[in-house]
Design brief:
Chain lengths: ~160, ~160
């Protein structure tokens, strides 16, 4: 097949793959963007609440930590589906950089790191070991920063 | 105790109760409002994706339905903490009506209904019974509408 034909077909293949792996792709890119910005807010709130407890800004409550960690962990599993093809059309109007779609493997690695560290945060929260929670919070925070450094426009 | 003194002390009691039940209250009402609006977006996206599958707008995928239902169920458990005292200060700038804070018991009933119907939706999704999922989606939708009718400003 000539390279030109392959290039012409590539978007169709990409779409086919997406249809299989992301059955939940929203029809409307703007809705998808609103959703993923909401998801970021939810993640930020629950994660920063645990961080605030560790800093003593609010009372440390192991049961609440576990609840917040469970939300962060669940939210982490959703990120990989939050940036489907088509939602980059409005990338200029959001803080999502085109690198997300141009470097999908590098992006997937960062997202996987967020999933892994969030899973450890939940395990740490369930263990009731405050030191382990503190360590896990640091690792989740690092994974947030690593991804934002590469894939989010500086505000 | 004279009624006047009770009235003067009431906010202090309310705050004390809040401190116990909502350890996770955000310091900044505006942040809390951004969070809860994000939480609504997340809930709406995952719930409407299941609804779209039932409508045939996207392919019905039982595994995806279970994943989306798990998010809706978790989000439903968070609503009761999303409207703490203090976040009504900006109520005029959001669609949240003052009735949320003026009729806390009625509001709590609607929120509990959302939790219950979401739990049934997750159970239905796990059962793999599409008819049961359809029925549960209808009930969750009704609970959304019932709460929005009474406590959200019409857009």
């Amino acid at each position: 097949m000539p390279a030109k034909t392959i290039r012409r077909l590539a978007p169709a293949f990409a779409l086919a793959v997406l249809t299989v792996s992301n059955v939940s792709v929203a029809a409307d890119p703007e809705e998808m963007i609103e959703y993923r910005q909401g998801a970021m807010e939810v993640t930020k709130y629950h994660f920063s609440t645990i961080a605030d407890m560790l800093k003593g800004k609010i009372e440390y409550d192991p049961a609440a930590v576990e609840k917040h960690a469970a939300v962060v962990q669940m939210m982490s599993t959703l990120v990989k589906d939050e940036f489907p093809e088509g939602t980059d059309a409005l990338a200029g109007e959001t803080n999502a950089l085109m690198e997300i779609w141009d470097q999908p493997d590098a992006f997937a690695d960062k997202v996987a790191e967020f999933e892994d560290t969030s899973e450890e945060l939940l395990a740490a929260a369930k263990s009731g070991d405050k030191g382990r929670v503190a360590s896990a919070v640091k690792d989740v925070g690092s994974s947030c920063k690593a991804c934002h450094d590469d894939f989010r426009r500086e505000e």
